[in-house]
Q: What sequence folds into this?
């Protein structure tokens, strides 16, 4: 009789959550107590603390992946743009998101902004908010603006549940998310230190589970995975250590992540599901909550292509730091086709890497792309070139 190892059991659970486009886990959570509400959010960042403080479940919606055929959704967008808005519309029109009581559309690009307008027209009985974030990082300017945005969202969610959200509730939720951020930081540090023990195809699924589980349960899951992964020795390979960047919104198919790993790369950092790592350290949970969330956003957040850089000289600084702290030997730019934020940023980041002698390669994908072989060949050649020509 074969027994399932703890790692396999955890990864299989995460895979089942990942594949369940009908959001069974969310329905289950709602059914466990009367009156519970769930609020969906699109990539890239929303302050989930506010949703949690209202007693609601924040649910990350990352499109339909390669699991659904987009039929109705194609009528709403041009055929050449990225796929996530179309598959998200498809999810909505086919009733798969009916268990959500509202949707937040964070400011990232015109596509998501337009999607928020479509949602208001299509789903009139749901709460919908376009959530804006600052592009100025002074507390008195961008900070004041952002605190107002946070206050408006807090107000809306309070009305939705029927009573205002208190500072104490918010601070308690900030503490819960501090724990979650800490666990995810540990997960990323562990993968970087021992990537053969925690492959990215698994880390991705563990992270993805946090899109539908309550944060408390997700923190426990991450900790369990770390303990189980560490207890099960796996063979170490002579792979090239790379940072994968550009995949912060529409997600690559899981097969693509596996293809990159199978080609000879260890992914030691990435920008998947940045909402889990947008704020880089603990947010004080004993002060004015909105102001503290604002300060963390303005001064202590990840500066990827998904966030506006106020100064040209800031470009690439965060990526170089990722490369250094993770001991990466190269960068793979992997962005969805048509993704303005990722693809506009890419030449500037490539320029920074070239000036710093960091090898890099680039390709585009769609969430339902079936072209794994060329990507595997490209990533494999990149890994070989690092090992042959840039290793000391
Ligand atoms: S993939 Fe890029 S362009 Fe498309 S919705 Fe996301 S951020 Fe916008």
A:
């Amino acid at each position: 009789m074969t027994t399932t190892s703890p790692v396999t059991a955890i990864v299989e659970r995460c895979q089942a959550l990942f594949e369940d486009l009908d959001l069974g886990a969310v329905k289950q959570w709602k059914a466990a107590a009367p009156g519970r509400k769930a609020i969906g959010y699109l990539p890239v960042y929303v302050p989930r603390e506010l949703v949690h403080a209202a007693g609601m479940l924040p649910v990350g919606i990352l499109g339909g992946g390669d699991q659904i055929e987009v039929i109705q959704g194609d009528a709403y967008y041009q055929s050449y743009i990225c796929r996530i808005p179309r598959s998200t519309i498809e999810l909505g029109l086919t009733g798969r998101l009916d268990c959500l009581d509202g949707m937040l559309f964070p400011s990232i690009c015109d596509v998501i902004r337009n999607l928020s307008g479509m949602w208001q027209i299509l789903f009139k009985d749901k709460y919908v908010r376009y959530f804006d974030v600052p592009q100025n990082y002074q507390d008195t300017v961008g900070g004041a603006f952002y605190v107002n945005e946070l206050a408006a969202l807090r107000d809306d969610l309070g009305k939705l549940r029927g009573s205002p959200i208190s500072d104490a509730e918010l601070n308690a939720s900030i503490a819960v998310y501090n724990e979650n951020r800490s666990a995810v930081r540990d997960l990323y540090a562990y993968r970087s230190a021992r990537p053969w023990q925690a492959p990215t195809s698994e880390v991705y699924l563990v992270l993805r589970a946090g899109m539908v589980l309550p944060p408390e349960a997700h923190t426990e899951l991450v900790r369990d995975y770390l303990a189980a992964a560490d207890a099960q020795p796996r063979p170490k390979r002579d792979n090239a250590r790379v940072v994968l960047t550009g995949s912060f919104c529409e997600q690559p198919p899981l097969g693509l992540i596996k293809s990159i790993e199978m080609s000879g790369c260890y992914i030691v950092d990435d920008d998947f599901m940045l909402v889990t790592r947008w704020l880089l350290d603990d947010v004080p949970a004993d002060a004015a909550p909105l102001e503290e969330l604002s300060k963390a956003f303005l001064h202590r957040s990840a500066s990827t292509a998904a966030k506006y850089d106020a100064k040209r000289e800031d470009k690439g600084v965060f990526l170089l730091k990722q490369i250094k702290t993770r001991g990466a030997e190269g960068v793979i730019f992997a962005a969805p086709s048509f993704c303005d934020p990722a693809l506009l940023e890419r030449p500037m980041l490539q320029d920074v890497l070239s000036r710093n002698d960091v090898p890099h390669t680039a390709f585009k994908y769609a969430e339902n792309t079936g072209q794994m072989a060329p990507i595997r060949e490209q990533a494999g050649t990149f890994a070989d070139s690092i090992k042959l020509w840039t290793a000391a």
Remarks:
- The first strand starts at residue 38 and ends at 41.
- The chain has a mean pLDDT of 95.
